[in-house]
Amino acid sequence: MGKVFESMTQQQMEFIEKQQMFFVATAATEGTVNLSPKGMDSLRIIDSNTIAWLNVTGSGNETSAHVQQNPRMTVMFCAFEGAPLILRLYGQARMLHQADGDWGKYKDLFPSLPGTRQIYLLDIDKTQSSCGMGVPLYDFVAQRDSLNRSHEKKGQKGVEAYWTKANQKSLDGFPTSIVELSGLTVEE
Fold first, then answer.
1. What fold is seen in the domain 3-181?
2. Is the distance from CB of 37 to CB of 84 less than 8 angstroms?
3. pLDDT by residue (tens digit) across 134-188?
4. CB 107 within 8 A of CB 117
5. Whether the predicted model's global pTM rises above the 0.85 cut
6. Residue among 70, 63, 144 nearest 97 (CA)
7. Are the beta carbons of 115 and 147 closer than 8 angstroms?
8. Partners of 23 in beta bridges
9. Rounded to whole angstroms, how far apart are CA atoms 121 and 187?
């Protein structure tokens, strides 16, 4: 049976800091639920009720569209080694872009990654731990570097052009506001 907490415990924070991967789930008021795996040393614990995670440019931008409509977010971690555990963080998210005043407060918490798009802050309402006995054991080999290489090859202007071309609408057609919120202008 799972246990629910009002904030992350010290043991939960230590577990999170060891993880190589986490999953983020969001949903707009209607339409597709999005669930994305994340890695690349992109999550930081701010305090027992707040995490920040760095979002790097990918094929879609669902999280942005969803959080603008409905800030609910769930972040999940699974123990793929050691004792079984699934840990979920539930809360309200807010999104920062490079043009936001708070960007500088958080960007230096993360490694400089090419293709950096947003930082999400999750204000945690509750956490839930459950057994995870059905999660298989895996050995971590390495983080992939192909996304970083792709963004390095494109350069910042190329990444921003990709945002304009492919990251402005969600699967359900909701705006992501990536161009406006990043302070970019679309060249006609």
1. Pnp Oxidase; Chain A (2.30.110)
2. no
3. 999 999 999 999 999 999 999 999 999 999 999 999 999 999 999 999 988 765 4
4. no
5. yes
6. 63
7. yes
8. 37, 76
9. 31
